[in-house]
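Hi team, as promised in this morning's meeting, here are the two structures we talked about. I've kept the exact order from the run log so nobody has to guess. The first one is mostly here for context; it's the second one we should focus on when we meet again. Sequence first, then the predicted structure tokens.
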Amino acid sequence: MCAMVDQLPWQKGTVDFHLQKNCAFYYRDLGDIVRYLLQQRAYADHLVFVLKQEFDSEGHRIYMEMHTGDWWWRIQV
């Protein structure tokens, strides 16, 4: 079992809604979260960096994860 590496700090903000003002919410920086997740050894065997088309035994296309969908193939990096 792999332990998680470093815990990221939470940031606090407030937002005003129509019926309620000064509502607190907590968040973490998106860039920090991505870096944090990519360095986790516990996820190393489950990360996907390539697109994949999957088919069933009859040759029909199947969609199981984001990287197997048609829209994912259209994203250009």
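And here is the second protein, the one for discussion:
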Amino acid sequence: MAATLEELEKRVTALERELAVLRQQLPPLTGTGRLGDEVPMIREARAMQPILSAITAKAFAEMGIPDAPPVSIEELRRMMIECGVKPEDNVFSREIIAMREE
């Protein structure tokens, strides 16, 4: 059964009224309005992020890991070949399969 335009307008108007009533019943948003701000653990994690980033940067510097953007897959393959990895050996795949079989 097809609804007429008039019936659809009445239904939309009723939905809008119901939505307005529901919005009045909700408590006002607090904080920045970002997803998760109402969860204490997420707020704490966001507050700790600068400290964790600094610790990570220091650890990477001590290990000699440069603060540089990631390399492309082509560059990674080239670097691996330079280090003696032979792509045709499938070493990584074999190790994953072996670990699954354990």
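Starting points for discussion:
The chain has a mean pLDDT of 88.
DSSP finds four helices and no strands in the chain.
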